[in-house]
Amino acid sequence: MAKICVHAVISGRVQGVWFRHFTREQAQASAVTGWVRNLSDGRVEALLCGEETAVRHVEAWLSRGPELANVAEVTSTDREYQPDLDGFDIIETDAE
């Protein structure tokens, strides 16, 4: 199975609803590496890397998000696979 990375930007009501926390849980459960962070404009950004089916599973979950979220749009772009990523991190930003 091919390994891929997907860069995603999620908009809607996605901050203050534990979106990053639940994204990390979904990624870890699927053995996907990468990171997730809040953006200063209210969106959330994520990089998902791993086996293609696992990455696509987490990418699909981003369209729903956690219970309190209201996802308006997910813009995804395939990226070159990054084998040096280890684990899945929540990156703290100024948009807390």
UniProtKB/TrEMBL annotation:
Catalytic reaction list? an acyl phosphate + H2O = a carboxylate + phosphate + H(+)
- Note whether Hydrolase occurs among the keywords: yes
Q: Which residues form the active site?
A: R20, N38
Reported EC number(s) for this entry are 3.6.1.7
Q: Which UniProt keywords apply?
A: Hydrolase
Q: Which residues form the Acylphosphatase-like domain?
A: 5-92
Question: PROSITE patterns, alphabetically?
Answer: ACYLPHOSPHATASE_1, ACYLPHOSPHATASE_2, ACYLPHOSPHATASE_3
Give this protein's Gene Ontology molecular function annotations. Answer: acylphosphatase activity
Q: InterPro entries recorded for this chain?
A: Acylphosphatase, Acylphosphatase-like_dom, Acylphosphatase-like_dom_sf, Acylphosphatase_CS
What is the similarity comment for this entry? Belongs to the acylphosphatase family.
- Name by which UniProt lists this protein: Acylphosphatase
According to its UniProt entry, this protein's organism is Marinobacterium halophilum
